[in-house]
Design goal:
Helix content is 18%, strand content 35%. The chain is of the alpha+beta class and 364 residues long.
């Protein structure tokens, strides 16, 4: 990104309702960096009864606390990603059960341990809610050291509302949830940039009354700088600009696409043409289907749930409709073959999903 890229910081504070503008910032330094490798943790699933023998690579796991009647306490679900079985042995307390050691990445924005008031065990299921088994307790083995936080400098910030009051010492209220948005050249929101935690501030050399803020936040992948440059003057007019990027870049492309979602829904019964030449992964499918429905830079979901939500209206097209999938053989060859522990949809599975949602798919 260039130095002219501006940002807005929004937040919530105690005693106030809704989001407020906290700051307008002229530049963000060190925002782009390769993210640290995810922290892999070891867990003991104690006292397991399994529905079948666990595979070595489990992928995405859902842990749901159970109440005294053995019923799931769904609102307390807890997630592990890229899980692998390291060891299985007879439970020391009950020879009819097993203790299983797994290594996995704890999903973002979760507590260190699943919430479980009055829980008497856990249900273990996969990404499709398939039951893998149940177990009595969970223990983390030797928690690893967390990576240091990533620091970003927000320069030339004009402060507003409670943030100015707190930083200038006139208010001591706690500052709560906050998020940073990147702006395009016209001052409209380009894309979300992250969730900063303010750790330091000082007067800025960029002008009187301005501040430079130091924040801790997750960095944006370097490819995002290239993507934002393509959106800096607003929604692009050229199709398939996303096709030059890898899976990470294509996923990031959908952030500004969602931010620029505009226009009323077209009536049900329409026909949309899906350019399949670049659909080599799941992310590419959602980029392409967004453009099929809404034109270059269009958005129509970024996953199964997002696509299902879009069918409910407000995303440019009313259900039902026909999707003509051109060059579908590219997806047939490429989808679902990546060597991942949580395998993405293969072509027949994606096709089945669309048809289950009432989409008339014509392969062209």
């Amino acid at each position: 990104m260039t130095a002219s890229t501006a940002f807005t910081l929004w937040g919530e504070s105690e005693g106030q309702s809704g989001e407020q503008l906290w700051a307008r910032c002229e530049e963000a330094v060190d925002l782009f960096a390769e993210p640290p490798a995810p922290v892999r943790r070891r867990y003991e699933l104690l006292g397991c009864t399994l529905e079948a023998e666990l595979q070595a690579a489990l992928g995405f796991l859902v842990l749901t606390p159970l109440d005294e009647q053995g019923e799931p306490m769904g609102r307390w679900e807890w997630y592990l990603e890229d899980a692998r079985v390291l060891a299985t042995r007879t439970c020391a307390r009950d020879a009819s059960r097993l203790d299983v050691t797994v290594e996995a990445v704890r999903s973002d924005q979760q507590p260190p341990h699943p919430g479980r008031p009055l829980a008497v065990g856990f249900r273990l299921s996969d990404a499709e809610d398939g039951l893998l088994g149940r177990f009595r307790d969970l223990a983390e083995v030797s928690p690893p050291e967390e990576p240091p936080p990533h620091s970003v400098r927000l320069l030339g910030c004009s402060l507003h509302g409670p943030l100015r009051e707190v930083l200038e010492g006139r208010d001591e209220r706690p500052l709560g949830y906050r998020h940073l948005d990147a702006l395009d050249s016209g001052g409209a929101v380009l894309a979300p940039a992250g969730y900063p935690h303010i750790v330091d501030w000082q007067p800025s050399t960029r002008g009187p009354g301005l501040y430079d803020l130091t924040v801790h936040m997750d960095p944006q992948p370097p490819v995002v700088a290239d993507i934002w440059a393509l959106w800096s003057d607003g929604r692009p007019a050229v199709p398939n600009l996303w096709a030059r990027f890898d899976r990470v870049g294509r996923s990031c492309w959908l952030d500004p696409a969602l931010s620029h979602r505009t226009g009323p829904d077209r009536p049900a019964g329409g026909t949309y043409h899906l350019d399949g030449r670049h659909i080599t992964d799941a992310e590419g499918f959602f980029c392409a289907v967004g453009e099929a429905v809404n034109g270059p830079g269009g958005y129509f979901g970024r996953c199964h749930n997002g696509f299902s939500d879009a069918l409910g209206g407000g995303f440019g097209a009313r259900w039902p409709f026909t999707l003509v999938w051109h060059d579908h053989e590219v997806a047939r060859r490429c989808l679902g073959v990546q060597p991942l522990t949580s395998r993405p949809d293969a072509f027949p599975e994606l096709l089945s999903f669309l048809r289950e949602k009432g989409i008339d798919v014509v392969l062209a």
